Amino acid sequence: MKKILYSVISAMFLFLGSACERDDYEFKQTASITVVNAGLGIGAVKVNPGAGGGFAYSRALDVANYNSGVFGAFAGSNTITVVKSSDTTIKYFERTTDLQPISTLYISGAATAIDTTFRIEKDFPLINSSSVNAENAMYVRFVNLSPNSGSINVRILAATTNEVSALAYKGISDFKKYNAPPAPVGSPQFTRFEIRNATNTTTLATFDVNYNGTRYKTASVIFRGLLPEGTLNPFPVGAFQVNYN
Question: Where exactly are the structural domains of the chain?
């Protein structure tokens, strides 16, 4: 009987000890970083989202030019590094920052003069399934990453008012909700936007936000490239879309 009692007491101490150890565990919150590559002439990039100096760039995914990638990390202090894919000794961005759950890093400028904009997403909209026409809705914002375009206006094709006015280089508009226009089942559903020079209203580019497969998503439309237009311009202006969810 004494042996059984001693065994039970020993087991209790082991359980209490392991429970105390579990109390010391730290559960870290995760974060995501969306890296948008709108740099001119830099090609693809690779991202170290905070894994330290031993990070294996050879195994990292490329973020192609005029494209984006999403990377996971732990929230809190992290050193984020972006390098050239073809030569990882060339750094385009390196910063230690306090990561929050959602952030975006925009890469712009040219290979000889890279610009970056790091943004903590504090007021990120979510589609409410109980909202009016929610099945057709998505939130869209516009980002001007064309270094020499000047300020831009954005409007829906054939509209008389702007959706965004005087958006300067590296400017980021607020999100606005759009509903897909009615169309026959299976046919493309999109809204065509015009990107215009804010001073003389010249149309610089058009872009279709396509709702097929992107309902419920939050997206940024990125204006990129250089002016003036012409056959000798290696980086003509245009736009591409980044989906967040």
Answer: 30-120, 134-243
